[in-house]
Every structure is written in structure tokens, then in C-alpha cells.
């Protein structure tokens, strides 16, 4: 980063200085400038008089309040300047105080004050020069152009200040919007992690409970089956731990490049393994049926479809008292329909509610789809979820 220039540093210091201190220094500088003509008169000029000097001071002293009361200051200087010029003791070569107040008015005053004062100064200067002895034609152009330049500089300062204020306000708005977006993203991420953890734990615990209840029943009559049940419990626990590590890994703020890489989340390709695991672990007859031509799905939709099927099968194992279940994937041109049905006792509540089923609806909605849960046409329980495929989702977003 390059160092700031001395001029930039000086301007920055002036902006933080007490305004009255700066304006007092400006007034003193203007008073010194208007006094030079009398302190060092040219040959033939009128000598310095006390009244003339007081009139010159009247064009400089009010500048101390130029920012506190710009219009009142301009009025005072506007009266003193032509009075000094008409006094001929001697008239000023340059209207130093007038330039300062015109700049200040253009930068700080209201529109009607700026316009009225600019018109008054242009007319007043023209009339004053006309009554001045030995006035040259170029003096009209010089004085009028000086007034316009001072006013233009003030207008430029006002515009720059308004532009800077707009940029600062926009930066504050963007910062607030960025903070709100970050908060929303964090809330969505927490909700996603909560859904994943619920699905993983509910599925694993349901399988372990089923096997744990069956183990003591057959431990004496069928030791091999009891051993298989305990193996299933261990397998379900290990699988849950693996998936939990994968989910909780996203909570780390930083992971070294040499650290273990997180495996991808399961998708539709893992549905057959899920069906087989549920069937082997619980004795439930689970069948996977696929129709239509498979199409590419966005990664988040793949994970959502797997978790929805996992949650639906978990509910079947825990609540349905079913003997069989079917997981269906029906591929259409712009969407895929995931259907999970069982032959159990059906929904226990009229709306088929529950934390897990709420998560099913949330997952479907987050992917641009929808979910319907409730009793099946032939009894039992059914979950129907429609999710957009890649082409359909792009069209919806476009």
C-alpha cells in the first residue's frame, strides 16, 4: 500500500479539526489579504483610512460563522463588500470575502439561497464596476468569471460530499444485507444439519432397537440368529457414527489440507444399499422399483431424496407394524417421483404429522419440489415426493 500524499494527509486533518478554528483562520487570511492594498498602496492610490479598514474587516470577520450560519454570513459580506467599493478608500481589487461566501453558499445553503445570492452578486458586481472610476472592460469579465468559478467550486464540493455520503450509506446497507444473508445461510445450514442428524440417528436407533428386542428372544433357541442381530446392531451403530462424522465435519471452521477428506453424502445410488440394510436388519420385506429413464439430479437433490427415503423407512420400522414396504422411483422428463409405501396400520394422526415428516416436507421444498404424506389407497402409509431434475430446475430458475 502506497503512503498517503502530504496534501491528502493535510485535508484529512482539516476535516477533523474544530470548524470554528478553521473558519477563524480563513477569516484572518481574508482580512490580511484585503489589508495588503492599504498597507502597501500603489502610487496614486488613496491612503489607508480607519473607516476603509473597518469596511474591509466587515468583509472578513463574518466568515468565522460561515458554516454555522452560511446565509446570514453571506448577507453581511454582501452588504459590506459594495459599501467598501463605493467608499473609494481605496476599492478592493479582488472580493476575497465574496469568493469565500459564494463557495460556502454553493456547498451548504438551500437552493433558493444559493440562486438568489449568485444572481445578487453578479448584478451587484456589474453595477459596482460601472460606477468605478477608470474601470476597464476586462474587469467585468474577470470579476464575473471569478464569482462563477467560486460558486462552481462550492457546487463541486457539495456534489462530492453528497456522492461520498451516498457511497457510505450504500456500504452500510450492503453490510446490513450481507449480515442478514449470513444469518439466513447459518440458519439454513443449522436446519439442514439438524435434519440430517435426526434422519441418521432415528434410522440407526430404530434398527438397533428392533434387533435388540429380537436378540433376547432367540438367544437360546437360535444362537446364530441372535449373533446376527447383535452384528446388525453394531453395523447400524458404525454406519451412524460414520455419517455423523461426515455431517459434523462441516461445522469445523478450518480443516488442514493434510487432514482427512470428508466422503460425499449418499445419493440415489445408495438407495439399493439402504433397502438391503433395512430388510436384513429388521426382517421387513423391502423392494426397490425404478421406472423411466434416470436423469441427472443436483447434488443437494440427490442427498434429499436419499434422506427422505431413509426417514420414510425409519417411520415404517418404528410406527407402522408393517410386514412389507416398497420404495419407488418414477423418472419423468422434468421430475422424479419418490414413493415409499407400506402395508402397516396407516397414519396415527389425521395429518400424518411428526418431526421427521416435517423434515421430509422441508427437504422437498428446499429442492424446489413438494411432498404429500398420509394413508395409502389400499391402507398403510405413503410418502410421495416430487423433485425437479436438472433441466427442469434450470428452467424454473431461469
Please tell me about this protein's structure.
It is a single chain. The chain has 398 residues and is α+β, with helices and mostly antiparallel strands. The protein is 64% helix and 9% strand. The protein contains 12 helices and 5 strands. Mean pLDDT is 76; it is low at 253-262 and 391-398. It has a 5-stranded mixed beta sheet with strand order 1-2-3-5-4. The two termini are 42 Å apart. Among the domains are: 6-135, no CATH class; 284-398, Histidine kinase-like ATPase, C-terminal domain (Heat Shock Protein 90, 2-Layer Sandwich), CATH 3.30.565. Keywords: ATP-binding, Coiled coil, Kinase, Nucleotide-binding, Phosphoprotein, Transferase, Two-component regulatory system. This is histidine kinase. It catalyses: ATP + protein L-histidine = ADP + protein N-phospho-L-histidine. Pfam families: DUF7134, HATPase_c, HisKA_3.
